[in-house]
From TrEMBL:
Full-protein residues shown: 1 to 332 of 583
MF term (GO), any: GTP binding
One GO term describing the cellular component: cytoplasm
Coiled coil stretches, renumbered: none
Origin species: Haloferax prahovense (strain DSM 18310 / JCM 13924 / TL6)
Domain named Tr-type G: residues: 1-211
Function noted in UniProt: Function in general translation initiation by promoting the binding of the formylmethionine-tRNA to ribosomes. Seems to function along with eIF-2.
Similarity remark: Belongs to the TRAFAC class translation factor GTPase superfamily. Classic translation factor GTPase family. IF-2 subfamily.
Top-level taxon in the UniProt lineage: Archaea
Keywords: GTP-binding, Initiation factor, Nucleotide-binding, Protein biosynthesis
Protein name (record): Probable translation initiation factor IF-2
Keyword Transmembrane helix set for record: no
Lineage: Archaea, Methanobacteriati, Methanobacteriota, Stenosarchaea group, Halobacteria
Chain sites annotated for binding GTP: 5-12, 67-71, 121-124
Length: 332
C-alpha cells in the first residue's frame, strides 16, 4: 500500500501515527528522500482502529505501507512506489488542496490503474477545532461546533471538486458503496489521530477484497521484489532494501538482480527483517531470518551487489531456468 502526495502534506507523519514512531522528525529538513517500507501487524491495526477493525474478520497478517517522497525532484521514486502497490493512499492537506505533486500522483495512479483512497489530512487545523485524540471521524464530528464542521466540509468539498475535475467521482468515505467506482475521502489528522481508525478500517476492507479477488499473492512460488535502496551495512558490504511483493525468498537462494550494466546473479547470504512497525529506511536492528514471504520489506545481504540499482527487479530463480530469469530481469 503506497502513500503518495505533495511535499509536507503529512505522508510520513500519518505513518508515524500508525506505527507509533517519529521518522518524520528525524528526516533532514523534514523531507522524505527515499521510499520506505513498514509492516504494520494486524494487532497494531486493530488496536488503533478499535471497533472499526476486528481481527477475527480478517485473514490478513497486517498492512505493508510504502512511504514515498513528495518533493518535486523525486518523481521516479513516486512512480516506483505507486507502481509497487496494490492500493494507494493519496494524502492531501485540507488547507492546501491539490498541488503539483498531488496531480502527478493522480496521473501515476491513473496510469497504473491502482485503486486509491484520499486521506484529507490536517483536519485539526480547522479554525475552532475541538480535538478528540484518536477518535473515529463520526465521533469527532459530533464534538465540533456547527461553524468548525462547515469550515471543514467546505475544504473537503474542494478536494471532491478537484477529483471530479480529473474524472474521478468521490465522496465522504461513509457514503461510498463501491470503492472501485467511487473514491472514498477520509478526513484525518496525523497530529491528533482523528479519523485514523476510519482510514485503517477502509484500507483493511479494501486489502481483504483485493487479496481475495485479484491479488492472489502466490506466497509459495519463487520470490519477486523491487529494490528500494542499495546500502552499505557493516559486516555485510552492499545490501539491498527490497519490497517483496510476491512469493518467498530464502537464505541460500540464487537470485537475479537488475544492475547498472548487466543483471547480477548471486546467492542470498542473509535475510534481515526490520521489526514489526519499524521503517526499513531508519531501522538499526534487524532480525536474521531464514525465509520471508510476500508482502514484506526485507534487507538482502549477498556478494556482488555493488552495481545493483534502486528500482531494479529482484527474482528468486527457484527451479526455473537461470537464463530465462536473467532475460526476464533484462526485460523490466
Ligand atoms: P515529504 O515526505 O517531504 O513529501 O513530506 P510528508 O508528506 O511526509 O510530510 P510530513 O509528514 O513530513 O509533515 C510535514 C509537516 O506537516 C510536519 O511539520 C508535520 O508535523 C505537519 N503535519 C503533518 N500532519 C499534520 C496534521 O495532521 N496536523 C498538523 N497540524 N500538522 C501536520
Ligand atoms: Mg515524508
Amino acid at each position: 500500500m503506497a502513500v503518495l502526495g505533495h511535499v509536507d502534506h503529512g505522508k510520513t507523519s500519518l505513518l508515524d501515527k500508525i506505527r507509533g514512531s517519529a521518522v518524520s522528525e528525524g528526516e533532514a529538513g523534514a523531507i522524505t528522500q527515499h521510499i520506505g517500507a513498514t509492516a504494520v501487524p494486524l494487532d497494531t491495526v486493530s488496536q488503533m482502529a478499535g471497533s472499526l477493525v476486528k481481527p477475527e474478520d480478517f485473514d490478513l497478517p497486517g498492512l505493508l505501507f510504502i512511504d514515498t517522497p513528495g518533493h518535486h525532484s523525486f518523481s521516479t521514486l513516486r512512480s516506483r512506489g505507486g507502481a509497487l502497490a496494490d492500493i494507494a493512499i493519496l494524502v492531501v492537506d485540507v488547507n492546501d488542496s491539490f498541488q503539483p505533486q498531488t496531480e502527478e500522483a493522480i496521473d501515476i495512479l491513473k496510469r497504473t490503474g491502482t485503486p486509491f483512497i484520499v486521506a484529507a489530512n490536517k483536519i485539526d487545523t480547522t479554525p475552532g477545532w475541538n480535538p478528540q485524540e484518536g477518535a473515529p471521524i463520526q465521533k469527532t464530528y459530533e464534538e465540533q461546533s456547527q461553524r468548525a464542521r462547515s469550515k471543514l466540509d467546505e475544504k473537503l468539498y474542494e478536494i471532491i471538486g478537484e477529483l471530479s475535475d480529473r474524472g474521478f467521482s468521490s465522496d465522504f468515505y461513509w457514503r461510498v458503496q463501491n470503492f472501485q467506482s467511487n473514491i472514498g475521502v477520509v478526513p484525518v489528522s496525523a497530529l491528533t489521530g482523528e479519523g485514523i481508525p476510519d482510514l485503517l478500517g477502509v484500507l483493511m476492507g479494501l486489502s481483504q477484497r483485493y487479496m481475495k479477488d485479484e491479488m492472489a499473492i502466490d506466497v509459495a512460488g519463487p520470490g519477486s521484489g523491487t529494490v528500494l535502496e542499495v546500502k552499505e551495512e557493516r559486516g555485510f558490504g552492499a545490501t539491498l532494501d527490497v519490497v517483496l511483493y510476491d512469493g518467498t525468498i530464502r537464505a541460500g537462494d540464487t537470485i537475479v538482480v537488475g544492475g547498472a550494466n548487466n543483471p547480477i546473479v548471486t546467492e542470498v547470504r542473509a535475510l534481515l527483517q526490520p521489526r514489526p512497525n519499524a521503517e526499513i529506511r531508519t531501522e538499526k536492528r534487524f532480525d536474521k531470518v531464514d525465509e520471508v514471504g510476500a508482502a514484506a520489506g526485507v534487507k538482502i545481504a549477498a556478494p556482488d551487489l555493488e552495481d545493483a540499482m534502486a528500482g531494479a527487479p529482484v527474482r528468486v530463480v527457484g527451479d526455473r531456468d537461470l537464463d530465462e530469469v536473467i532475460r526476464e530481469v533484462e526485460a523490466e
